Amino acid sequence: TGLGLDIVRRVAESTGGDVRVGRSVLGGTEVRMWLVLDGGRRRSGGRRVDRLMRRGRWGRRPGKPGRPGGPGEAGRAVPPV
To answer: By residue range, what is the domain housing residue 17?
Structure first.
C-alpha cells in the first residue's frame, strides 16, 4: 500500500532524524533510518517515543550503561541499522 515507508519517515522526522533510501551493494533496496533520542523532548511528536524508551518497550532504557554512542546516550543520533 506504500504506507510503511511514510510511517517510518514520520517517526524519524518527529525525533529530528532522517530516512534515506538507496541501492544496496548486494542489489535491492537499502533503507537507513536515523533517530535523535533527545530530539523528541523538544518536539511534541516525539514525546511518545521518549515515553516508550523510558518504559523499556524498545529494549535498553535511556542512560543505561552500554556501548558509547549507542541508544540511551542523550544528544547523539542512533547509527543507521
So the answer is: 1-81
| Single-letter amino acid, residue 10 | R
pLDDT score at 24: 87
Let me know: does 78 contact 11? Beta carbons within 8 Å.
no
- Residue among 28, 29, 35, 32 nearest 59 (CA): 35
In three-state secondary structure terms, 4 is: helix
Beta strands in the chain (DSSP E): 18-23, 29-34
* Average pLDDT value for the chain: 66
Does residue 71 contact residue 33 with C-beta atoms inside 8 Å? Answer: no
pLDDT of 53 > 60? The answer is: no
pLDDT of residue 1: 61
* Count of domains forming the chain: 1
